[in-house]
Amino acid sequence: MAVAGLQLSAPSAHGQGQVLLSSAKSSLFSAAPLRFSLPASGRESFSRKQLVVFARRLSGLEEAMRIKRERESQQLTPKVKRRPPLRRGRVSPELPVPDHIPRPPYVGSSELPEIASEHQIPGSQGIADMRAACELAARVLHSAGKLVRPSITTNEIDKAVHQMIIDAGAYPSPLGYGGFPKSVCTSVNECMCHGIPDSRQLQSGDIINIDVTVYLNGYHGDTSKTFLCGDVSDAIKQLVKVTEECLERGIAVCKDGASFKKIGKRISEHAEKYGYGVVERFVGHGVGTVFHSEPLILHHRNDQSGCMVEGQTFTIEPILTMGSIECKTWPDNWTTLTADGSPAAQFEHTILITRTGAEILTIS
Fold first, then answer.
1. Residues forming the annotated binding site for a divalent metal cation?
2. At residue 9, does pLDDT exceed 60?
């Protein structure tokens, strides 16, 4: 969503465009299974005790290889000076939207909308309207990024984004989505996504993901980017750079007839080169007249069925971390942080599937 992604866990809807599915832990590196065979001669004479001893040795070898891979991944990931943990600031009241601006159907209800089952295939006129909504979202995000500097508050960024959107005759999609109280998501440092703007001032060395979605002429345009604030360490700059590259690589495999699982494979391959984790619990989604719909776009390695169709619109929005891919959510039911406090970065585009590739609708 300007709500960064959808949460996967168990069968009911929960939090910001989030659908629950169960999610298995992933390791950054996987090794092929070890195989062995007994000698052709004397095979029958091998005792059960000898086989147990052999199996234990084999298990020990696998464990040694696992430890070796973990150490190698730690060496790939540069060390980062730990910053003070993120704390909630004061959240100001939601901003008003003029009565003449059309609202999405979920506004006015605190209930989180169900994820729509139908895929978003807008048609020729719908695509034109989608382009307009996505162009506006990209323009607002670009302007919001220029505001990022030490001492500005995320609440000030929210006010600026809100004003730009309503000045264009559009509605800020996050506002009122399942009770979300602001017009944009601002996720700082270890916040994976769905950060609620507040009175906290940005500090030099911070990173911030700004997630903008607008509702214009009946269509949503959804995009986000992670920005650097002041003097950011080289290690975190690399995380941000690689995350954007992962988005680009995910988009590059998209075209009519391509399988959805290729997206997660390509993203994971690139993230693993640098020892980064790819968050599994938040995913991309279909977007159009509906804010969040099928298909859900998994960013990690997966066996997801289904193929892309020409004319389809959806988001890709990977989140990478420098540590754990597990998360914890604040009592506001939105702000989601890495479980170990390690930095996280995210980038997002809305794309249109074409016969030969994908058109990025939210490019600025």
1. 211, 222, 285, 317, 348
2. no
Annotated binding site for substrate: 194, 292
Could you give the CA distance from residue 44 to residue 228 in angstroms, rounded to a whole number? 66
Nearest to 120 by CA among 363, 343, 353: 353
Domain assignment present for residue 19? The answer is no
Query: Residues with Cβ < 8 Å from 24, sequence gap 6 or more?
Result: 280
Annotated binding site: 194, 211, 222, 285, 292, 317, 348
- pLDDT 10s digits, 142-173: 999 999 999 999 999 999 999 999 999 999 99
Q: What is the mean pLDDT of residues 73-87?
A: 69
Q: Among 182, 93, 190, 197, which residue's Cα sits nearest to residue 147?
A: 197
Backbone angles phi, psi at 261, to 5 degrees: -65, -20
Query: What angle, rounded to 10 degrees, do the helices at 154-167 and 123-146 form?
Result: 140
Is 321 among the domain residues? yes
Q: State the total domains in the chain.
A: 1
